[in-house]
Write a structure and sequence with these properties.
Blueprint lengths: L3 E6 L3 H17 L7 H19 L8 E8 L3 E8 L19 H8 L2 E6 L4 E8 L24
Antiparallel strand pairs: 1-2, 2-3, 3-5, 4-5
């Protein structure tokens, strides 16, 4: 199994949408089907990072890059690189409350995340556990639900 993919996409809303779709497809190929928590969470993270790349990191004529790789300990690393290094990331929400929640969402969904400077631009990365928590796995033992005693004969 190839545990890494990397692709360049146009710095447009269409490129950001394609990044999310490619993520869903690749996670499914790696054994995390559409509709699973891992696939959905990865799609959300990529959607936010790609939207930031095309909105705030866009340099005319330059693409952004999506990289997905599986790290040891069943961890997915998502990297989105853009060509703009002069803008710093911020957790600022607009007064109308409609913008600025992307990185907050990433910080809530990811195990960890950060920013790496590059020669040209920056890479925003996030890591996500690929294993479902024990309590959410099919067939995992669950504590019995309380039962109401029935009538005594």
């Amino acid at each position: 199994m190839n545990a890494e993919i990397s692709t360049r996409l146009s710095s447009t809303p269409r490129g950001a949408r394609l990044a999310r779709l490619l993520t869903a497809q690749q996670l499914a190929a790696w054994g995390h089907p559409y509709g699973s928590d891992v696939n959905g969470t990865a799609q959300h993270i990529v959607a936010e990072l790609a939207a930031n790349a095309v909105t705030h990191g866009r340099v005319p004529g330059r693409d952004f890059e999506l990289r997905l790789l599986i790290l040891p300990e069943d961890t997915l690393r998502i990297e989105v690189s853009d060509a703009r290094g002069d803008r710093r990331l911020r957790f600022v929400t607009a007064p109308d409350g409609e913008h600025g929640h992307g990185l907050l969402l990433v910080s809530l969904l990811a195990l960890t995340w950060g920013v790496s400077e590059r020669d040209v631009g920056k890479t925003v990365w996030a890591e996500l556990a690929l294993k479902e928590p024990e309590s959410r796995r099919p067939g995992a033992s669950r504590s019995p639900s309380p039962r109401t005693p029935g009538p005594v004969d």
